[in-house]
Amino acid sequence: MNVHDIIYRPVVTEKSTIAREIGNVVTLAVDPRANKHQIKNAVESLFSVSVTNVRTSRMPRKSRRVGKYLGHKAEWKKAIVTLADGQSIEFFEGV
Questions:
Q1: In the predicted model, is pLDDT for residue 22 greater than 70?
Q2: Reduced to 3 states, what is the DSSP secondary structure of residue 68?
């Protein structure tokens, strides 16, 4: 699996933003087939940082309704990556 295929996008929520500011933690949406070692190697190679800890969780699918039609949002995997002291990943530098 390619390192660019493992990491999908950053998860930007109020909780993840506070964790990034206080605890040097980055939350990412990743490929559901990726394990912790692959996620760690991908983050270290793409962003040139050192990772101390990786926690993962599988987010369940949710029901969505559009009018009378019922559907589902896809199941996805979330990775909570702790970076070494003094290192950070800036996703929105120019905003």
A1: yes
A2: coil
Burial (CB count within 10 angstroms: exposed 0-12, middle 13-18, buried 19+), residue 60 = exposed
Within 10 A of 84 (CB to CB), how many other CB atoms are there? 12
Q: Which of 32, 6, 26 is nearest to 92 (CA)?
A: 26
- Tell which phi-psi region holds residue 90, choosing left (phi > 0), alpha (psi between -120 and 50) or beta: beta
Order of all β-strands in the sheet with 76-83: 7-10, 25-30, 76-83, 51-59
Q: Does this model's pTM top 0.85?
A: yes
Domains and CATH numbers, the chain: 3-83 (3.30.70.330)
